Amino acid sequence: MKKNSLKAKLTGILPDDVINKVNRSFEVVGDIAIIEISEELEQYEKQIGEALLQVNVSLKTILKKSGIHHGEFRTQDLVYVAGVEKYETEYLENGVRFKLNPGRVYFSARLSTERSDLMSMLDENQRVLVMFSGAGPYSLTALKMKPNLPLLTAIEINPNGHKYATESLALNKNILKKTKQYQSFLKFVKSHKLPVLEKNTLPMFNKTKVNFINGNVRIETREFHSKFADKKIEFYDNNIFDYEFKNIYHILDQLKDTKINIDVSKIHKIDEFINFFILFFDKFQWTAKIENKDYVFENSIEKAVFLEYLRNQENRKIEELHKYDEIYMPLPKDAELFLDCAFRSAAPGAIVHMYDFVHENDFPSKSENAVIKSAEKNNVKVEIIETRKVGQYSPRKYRVCCDFKVL
Ligand SMILES: C[S@@+](CC[C@H](N)C(=O)[O-])C[C@H]1O[C@@H](n2cnc3c(N)ncnc32)[C@H](O)[C@@H]1O
Question: Which residue from 99, 111, 141, 157 has its CB within 8 A of the most atoms of ligand 1, so it is best to mutate?
């Protein structure tokens, strides 16, 4: 028996027959280990946790699983066992730093190779959509490995997941390039004596347009785009930005909870508007007149979507609005229900990666049939590239990924 093994540390503390029943495999996220303890061993969990801390000196905290991943957010309840009582950690994977609480957002370190394999195959020119983005492992790995992507949109319904993803994005700011735009923004902020919210601002100035979208709205919210898809918006000539926004800066702090209407349709300098958006995103209700119809944007997802619309207007690329070349769907439990969305968002030639849970008897037909059926319904032609086993989910059941091309 190895001197520094879990078994050695427990010898003399727990009866031998108990030691033999201790599950030696566990998950590690940063300095937190997540263990499984059977009901029978619950009375010994503290000793098991403490022995594990002695064996793995990089660990600070031992938590145990209390049930399986559940609910729409696919989270897993975790209970404190030993070490420092904390639930949040920082974790490094494929050179990307993550901050997260593994009990409040789904996260599996076991999928790290899957993520780096996929992102190493990603073409630098692709517009990327990560549906169900969680704490951002797919999106941040993509940004790290391919920093010149033109567009990356990540959508997550769990507010905690979204919070951790945006915080981790800021943590990784060394992977983001400081552009001219960012320098002029800094100048602007200084001349107006504004606080520099570096954490929130930097990502917007990376070469990649990054949208992390969250709200009490599901992915279907993307329907929201279609309201504008063929409309024209007028950018007036008078510079409302200079005229009005400058005047409200100094009283902003007193306005914390006040709602102000900003007629975004009158802004003609989109860059300046983006600066404004970053600093005071939540403080105002936005309104816009588009072809004589008034629109109000109240919550953050509506604003993020509208901002994206404005940017596309400026680039005169409306026909390309929200089309993606590479789409990840890492929600094995339900991804196939969102295939309609994937088809609507796919540019011709797009590659889609749809995750699924499949019993060995139904592999690979279950996932492939779902793709083919949905493609027919959406009048789209597809070519299945491969359905891969990505891991074991339960006895005789796999986590798989069906990679297919939209023709
Ligand atoms: C299995 S987790 C994967 C998270 C992340 N991609 C990862 O690999 O760690 C699936 C995620 O989808 C999110 N989700 C579920 N339904 C959603 C929906 N309709 N719109 C957006 N996100 C959703 C959940 O909150 C959860 O974080």
Answer: 157
Alpha helices in 325-379 (DSSP H): 339-345, 365-377
Task: Pick the atom of ligand 1 nearest to 105's CA.
Answer: 27
Tell me if residue 324 falls in helix, strand or coil: strand
Tell me what pLDDT residue 211 has: 61
Total Cβ atoms within 10 A of residue 83: 18
Q: What is the pLDDT of residue 153?
A: 80
Residue 69 alpha carbon, nearest atom of ligand 1: 1
CATH superfamily of 6-87: Met-10+ protein-like domains (3.30.300.110)
How many angstroms does the Cα of residue 341 sit away from the middle of ligand 1? Answer: 15
Tokens describing residue 24: 């030696």
Strand partners, 64: 35, 79
**Do 331 and 106 contact (CB within 8 A), yes or no?**
no
Q: What is the pLDDT of residue 298?
A: 64
Q: Report the side by side order of strands in the sheet with 151-155.
A: 209-213, 151-155, 127-131, 324-329, 346-359, 397-406, 382-394
pLDDT along the chain (407 residues), means of 10: 84 91 92 95 95 94 94 93 97 90 96 96 90 91 83 83 85 54 57 48 45 46 40 32 35 43 52 50 58 64 62 47 84 90 88 98 97 94 98 95 98
Which residue of 331, 354, 356, 357 sits with most ligand 1 atoms within 8 Å of its CB, as the best mutation to test the pocket? 331
Contact 147, 175 (CB under 8 A): yes
CB atoms within 10 A of CB 43: 11
Q: Ligand 1 atom closest to Cα of 338?
A: 19
The structure's pTM equals: 0.72
Q: What is the dihedral of CA 245, 246, 247, 250, to 10 degrees?
A: 110
Domain segments of the chain: what residues?
6-87, 93-320, 331-406
Look at ligand 1, atom 25, and give the residue with the nearest C-alpha. Answer: 73
The CATH class of 331-406 is alpha beta
Which ligand 1 atom is nearest residue 355's CA?
Answer: 1
Task: Please list every protein residue whose CB sits less than 6 Å from any atom of ligand 1.
Answer: 72-74, 105-108, 111, 132-134, 137-138, 155-158, 161, 218-219, 330-331
Q: Could you tell me the distance, in angstroms and rounded to a whole number, from the CA of residue 165 to the centre of ligand 1?
A: 12
Of all protein residues, the one whose alpha carbon is nearest to atom 19 of ligand 1 is 218
